[in-house]
Structure of Glycine transporter domain-containing protein:
Amino acid sequence: MTAWNVFEIMGIVAFAVSGALTGIQKRVDIFGVLVLAVTTAVGGGIMRDVIIGNTPPLTFRDPTFFIISAIATIGVCFTYRWLDKFKHTIQIFDAIGLGAFTATSANLAIEHNLNTLFIVTTVAVITGIGGSVLRDVFVKEIPYVFRQEVYAITTIAGAISFYYAQFYFTGNIPLYLCFCITTGLRICCIMYGINFPVIGVNSGGRT
Amino acid sequence: MTAWNVFEIMGIVAFAVSGALTGIQKRVDIFGVLVLAVTTAVGGGIMRDVIIGNTPPLTFRDPTFFIISAIATIGVCFTYRWLDKFKHTIQIFDAIGLGAFTATSANLAIEHNLNTLFIVTTVAVITGIGGSVLRDVFVKEIPYVFRQEVYAITTIAGAISFYYAQFYFTGNIPLYLCFCITTGLRICCIMYGINFPVIGVNSGGRT
Amino acid sequence: MTAWNVFEIMGIVAFAVSGALTGIQKRVDIFGVLVLAVTTAVGGGIMRDVIIGNTPPLTFRDPTFFIISAIATIGVCFTYRWLDKFKHTIQIFDAIGLGAFTATSANLAIEHNLNTLFIVTTVAVITGIGGSVLRDVFVKEIPYVFRQEVYAITTIAGAISFYYAQFYFTGNIPLYLCFCITTGLRICCIMYGINFPVIGVNSGGRT
């Protein structure tokens, strides 16, 4: 198991925890909690694979991520009352996972000969935000990534850096560069509470 | 027309009726009622085919299921005031259809050389619940299968039995075994009103 | 740039404007406004390509439509307060775009050897309404095309005319015939305010 696997697992755990907590909060049954956790964790990757024609999606061929999501869900079911204390740890895990998935998705696009800046970036964004968009649609919320926080833009920055880095560096350097930029930017946004502006907000005191 | 076709048609009718009734209840127009009925009936199969790379989906190549859904929708439009009396009949049809679709989906996965227990099971679950998840997302409800009743778990039991049965039996035996287990379990759950627990329910008197 | 490109661009602009306006109205952030605009503009085409197995979808291979959507979004962000005055212009653009996309989608289906009336029609409908269904699901609305106005039916009429015209005419004649029928019917429906009936409406004074 490489460091990379550890990053990916941290991401899957963070995504699954957010899905499971959402499910518990919305009072769905335990099957629903599991589905929401798994969907949040692997939904973005499934969308990516369906779009680039990489079927059946990786998640279906190798159930590792599914199993990790299921274990995380069971963990959440027993500990959800105290998870609020670990909110920042989960956010850091999430940022690390986002970096890892951005890099692997950008790399996967290149491996499938989808070799343009546009496709590498959009594929990375879909992988990064797809799962949480599905989660929010399932529980009747306007997707969180559309409403608050700078999330997808860090993926875009990482994917662009990957695209250009692969022309100059070989081996794993582009992957790690992409990871550092995405995760680093995301952690900065969390620390300094940076949000995108909402248009029309200045027209009144409404939130 | 074999017995199997009859099972599938009963399922398509039950799914389409549930979609059409939802549409009427949510006061969408007649085109919306038709789309909801068709989506509920064939949405799970389309998701399955897109995921396993079986494109264009079977439904698009052979419009039989679409035509049956459309006829069921027209029927519902004229009889929806009295359909409540046939609630149990529709539930039985739904259980029979769920069994038939679970078996054909598990079989389709095997035919596409997706020959692992994990993929056979997930493909069967997606086919079984995909349509009703889409229906509920379209009408702004948290999917019913996440909230109440033991539904998908009967599909999982059926798919597992199919996967192991195909090693020991030939011909249609695995199909019929899967059908009997899925449909039988589902009817038991309906008769005894078995629901999954909701986490946190014991912490207060809330529903 | 042919007249056809102009029609498609008018459609993309109209779709993107409707997505961006929805986003501003629902108070999502500027990233969300962009995603909603792009999804509305190209979502139907992506669904079509995933379903017919034309992966990666055209939009990912050629970012022209994405760029036009992004420019339209920027324009809307600066002018949304006054766009209400151009409501009818946007509707006309939308009708023109609907006609163009119906024709290109029907043609694409034929080019992929999906040569039945049923598949040509459903593929055209999915392309025509897919984007706006996604937009409405993202912002927690029951899709507008299910609730009001005769929208998809004009696409169906156009696709049917395309299917039969290709047996008798060569070159671009079927494309233009399909375009004229779809756009013409749609404009008639707007002008005369034709809506589909809602079932049960006559049972009381409810809306």
Q: What stands out?
A: Residues 3-195 of chain C form one domain.
